[in-house]
Design goal:
258 residues, mainly alpha, hpI Integrase, Chain A, 2 domains, two-stranded antiparallel ribbon, 5 strands, 44% helix
Length: 258
């Protein structure tokens, strides 16, 4: 490396040092554990192909890895609460969305090496799979029926989520310290955000109305569960909330929010 720097030559950087630097810079991300898991997956795949340097990671190398992963069978251990009687695990197949997430991580690392670290002169293109999506949007009158059918505080959480556009985790974990009643804003520190960046959003009249209704319910949390703790994602799953209560409100095809 010293010789290359003295002679003005381009230092050949490795995949390992690149992904390690990127992960070190983003340890506060909420998805850091997922990033580590996917990084280890790529580490293993590149090791099998004897890929060491960034410039060795080409579409011709990545495409066979991508294709081999799609449809690969794996065993998933089931939660006792959701598994059928006598069933502890089930065999699943890797779907396109999972492969695309791994490719997205690879693109992020390569983009950082190219744009930020200046370790790559060019940026290869890694194509993912086209996913079939089916969007179901609620009409205003449908949403009104749904909110009416939902028990407290699910209706208020749903209303707050819709008018703010916040992710489920941010609504469930909303604390009074995040809310500024005077400025009519909600501020989330970087450690609570998926992208690792702090976020401040304005609260309109509807959102402020929900907030005011929650005053006095809990000292810390805006939307506590019956035990006084923050709701878990499983307590607000599609089947639990938007399935049962959505049907009660005569709203069909509701999936929930993430």
């Amino acid at each position: 490396m010293w010789k290359a720097e003295v002679n003005g030559e381009k230092v050949r950087r490795t995949w390992a040092e690149t992904v390690e630097r990127w992960l070190d810079e983003r340890q506060e991300k909420r998805s850091h554990k997922d990033d580590l898991r996917i990084a280890m997956w790529w580490n293993d795949k590149f090791a099998q192909q004897q890929i060491v340097y960034l410039d060795q990671i080409t579409p011709d190398v990545v495409q066979p890895i991508r294709d081999a992963e799609l449809g690969r069978e794996y065993v998933r251990t089931l939660d006792k609460k959701v598994s059928r009687v006598g069933e502890a695990s089930v065999v699943r197949k890797i779907q396109k969305a999972t492969v695309n997430r791994k490719l997205a991580f690879l693109r992020t690392i390569i983009n950082a090496a190219h744009r930020r670290y200046l370790w790559l002169l060019s940026r290869p293109l890694f194509e993912g799979y086209a996913e079939k999506t089916r969007m179901r949007y609620l009409e205003p009158h449908e949403f009104a029926r749904l909110v009416t059918a939902l028990p407290d505080p699910y209706g208020e959480m749903a209303t707050f989520a819709v008018v703010t556009g916040l992710r489920r985790s941010n609504v469930l974990g909303l604390r009074w310290e995040h809310v500024n009643m005077v400025r009519r804003t909600a501020t989330f520190p970087e450690k609570l955000m998926k992208n690792g960046l702090p976020l401040t959003i304005p609260l309109n009249a509807t959102a402020m109305g929900v907030i005011r209704q929650r005053i006095g319910k809990h000292d810390t949390l805006v939307f506590p569960n019956t035990a006084g703790n923050a709701y878990q994602a499983s307590q607000t799953s599609s089947g639990t909330i938007f399935g049962t209560h959505g049907q009660a409100g005569c709203v069909k095809g509701v999936r929930g929010w993430t």
